[in-house]
Fold these 2 entries.
Entry 1:
Amino acid sequence: MHVQICIIGAGPAGLMLARLLHLAGVSSVVLESRARAYVETRVRAGLLEQGSVDLMAATGMDERLRREAMVHDGTEYIAGGQLFHVDMWDLIQRRIYIYGQQEVVKDMIAANLAAGVPVIFEAEARKVGGLDTEKPFVEYAHNGAETTVTCDFIAGCDGFHGVSRAALPDAVRRDYARDYPFGWLGILADAAPTLPELIYCQNEERGFALFTMRSPKISRCYLQVAPDESEDNWSDDRIWTELALRLGDHEGVTLSTGAITQKSVTPMRSFVSEPMRHGRLFIAGDAAHIVPPTGAKGMNLAISDVYVLSRAMTEFYKTGATARFDAYTETCLRRVWGAQHFSWWMTSMMHNLPGENAFDRKRQLAELRTVLGSRAGQTLLAENYAGLPMEM
Ligand code: RFL
Ligand code: PHB
């Protein structure tokens, strides 16, 4: 088989890229190691920036999103026992959207398959090669057989644990990483959201909690826990008790509870691998970088990377120009490092760090009060949180 672009991974990055290429008349195949049902039910992110929503609309994939996404003009924060409201719309005239990543993925798979773009499930890429030649290839296993696709370019959209990043030679590759001494226990529950907006909560004694949602009837909540914590240690009662304690008492805020339908622990990591290209291989999204979820940037960065990549590929097929390929790493990394800084900043402001002394704890609270207590501070927070506009 030969295609113009072989895309590895049917996450938000790979599927958005396939769609953008199809609309520009460029052929691709998407190889996904997991089954369709698995990727369509994998519970992960939930927050889309305006730029990501605009791209879903521009590619004709927003029909359900427009109906079902919850549109938020602001966000709530709790720090030092005090509730702060950040009105993003008033401050920066931008908003955010709550729509589960698995819904985004479902819509993207449906659009690609309907357009005849091949998305091959249970097809695991084992090897990429020929990166310095004009005919790179991907070897993959599917239905018990080994198959090779040749292509003009490979897009490694295979997430943090994929095979593409490892194909960048050690001599050219540099990794930057930071692990955090905590993780998030995330739950889904049949419970209306506690407030209509997200609540980011820093509790001096007990640590971080986040109250978000998936629909008017489904809550998604997160608790800061030890990085090696097992969800098995957390009974439903223990989770609700801890969420209530971290939330604290505030007028008009009552924790909404219900049956917990899913729970899992995620470690927190910041990671960037540079460059994002070697020869005819381009890596995008979590394959190239990871952010801690506090800033809600991962899925949005995956989408903005492939937007940049699709423009480079489209221009190449139209005019033969390669300037955008050469600029790919730098164009993406400007946005990526901005999001890295913001995610690290939100994470370090909001979590209790094990071993932190009393001075550090007081300073952290003062920082939160400085940011949340001033219009200038709130504006900086809102600009980064809502995401800088993508050039369209
Ligand atoms: P994905 O989604 O991991 O997709 C990669 C796909 O590649 C497949 N794959 C392979 N396929 C073929 N051959 C191989 N050898 C393969 N190896 C892997 C995998 O099965 C998979 O389907 O990467 P992508 O597309 O770059 O998208 C990145 C996002 O998924 C990720 O950044 C976000 O989920 C991060 N994230 C959040 N991002 C946001 O923008 N907003 C949020 O609110 C947000 N919250 C979160 C999050 C991530 C979380 N967890 C669980 C890590 C909350 C959490 C708890
Ligand atoms: C989510 O809805 O899952 C979510 C929202 C905001 C975050 C992280 C996760 O910062």
Entry 2:
Amino acid sequence: MIWIAAGVAEELEIKVEIPDRQSAATKVTEMLDAADLESLERRPPVVTIMGHVDHGKTTLLDSIRKTKVAQGEAGGITQHIGAYHVDVEHDDQVQQVVFLDTPGHEAFTAMRARGTRVTDIAVLVVAADDGVQPQTKEAISHARAAGVPLVVAINKVDKPEAEPDRIKQELTEQGLVPEEWGGETIMVPVSAIKGDNLDTLLEMLLLVSEVEDLYANPNRPAKGTVIEANLDKARGPVATLLVQNGTLRVGDCLVAGSSFGKIRAMIDDRGDRVEAASPSFAVEVLGMSEVPLAGDEFDVYRSEKEARAIADERTGRRRETRLQQALSSRRVSLSSLSAQAQEGELKELNLILKADVQGSVEAILGALNQLPQNEVQIRVLLATAGEVTETDISLAAASSAVVIGFNTNLATGAAPAAEQEGVDVRQYDIIYNLLDDIQGAMEGLLEPEEVEEALGVVEVRAVFPVGRGSVAGCYVQSGKVVRNRRIRVKRRDEVVYDGVLDSLKRMKENVREVAAGYECGIGTAKFNDWKEGDTIEAYQMVSKRRTLAVT
Ligand code: GDP
């Protein structure tokens, strides 16, 4: 299955180096380097299951594991390590799909907030006897914000009161149009409890993964993310590592976050001891010096010494900068946005909107749409009625978004979370003020415009030869003239020089500026063809904050 990179490398390189869809979101660590492009191979997709509570996420995960993993396995014993893989027959080949075992978008977004992206595809579970619920909408927003494709599993179709068509209709209202209705979203009716149609769901996941360019280079030291970690009384620190590039081997020396490890043993999701783990597979690893954090990245180093040194350095740095990190967060606030815009980082304003009632949500969305967006785009990641919750804060943190609350409160835990994550939460009770602030922030995102500001007008009254050139004896008619600023020399209506004023003298003394009503001598390095009667316009360029042009 070696993928010949040559022809497509260019295309892939673009994908690797410019994660377009993440441009506005938090910086995400790239797992691939340019050097990997030569030896890329396809890797299985890593899937997260999301959806509203009680719609069947856990049942679906268990059911897929049971039906697919137990087959042919001695005893069918599986180990809970935070992720598991299944084998699927697809295109006459056995391929794998890897599932992260923690359902829900909270975990998904919490990881993303730390700068890691582990999920390639999200399965959105919607119960056919219930429909689109608040957490369904949240899950959609979270997947969209991360740029992760969604496959919908319409679950519980075994129930007599199941109405899959109504679910499709409701999802269409959320912008997810089923393929059979001319849209792009794959929707598979399933019964998690009975195990019906799970094969189709898995096939669809493989289909989606085919267009997602999921590649890694197995022939290099491993790199990836910690997905679970804990301290086991008997075994010491235990961490489940998801390999995202390279191959992880027993004996490897690695650094995860600030902890060092020399891998003593690895156990896969089927409970077997293994010697190696390739891209997209998760293994439980023994031999870490401390328990790393879920979401920490890990890297394998060729030398133990180097790995130890890096871990030590990080431990020290982590201690020192824990507070600083919290403060100098990479999050945005309405006021820090313009600085980022000037660095060319941001031309999108990501918003999360929570309001008292759905009516207010619609009204505010309508008003936001009226704001001109030809230069700065407003991206509403989530807009629902309700309190501002901790999950909203982590979505905001993960996506560099600002949270706007209208006539609503912060749920318990949201305020400390916002403070810790450095998320800007703005509360309003007057729509006008809300729009005013947003417009202000968008204007801050526009690059300032350079505009000319007139300083004064000067008349040339005499010309004195100096060395090979000449200087103009002048009289300042109005305003002032300033050295090192710009002048425009006009002879009747023609501009004969436009440039910097290099030398300005008053009574033979070099001066910085001369005001109206005084005489002065003016010289420039680049122009000396002065004529009596020339007019000099003194001016400077200033940058001015632009306002949004209404189209
Ligand atoms: P979660 O909160 O999304 O993880 O949902 P659970 O997996 O815990 O499921 C919630 C309830 O729905 C449980 O009582 C399940 O037995 C039930 N359930 C899940 N899937 C199905 C299904 O396909 N058919 C039926 N009839 N019940 C299901």
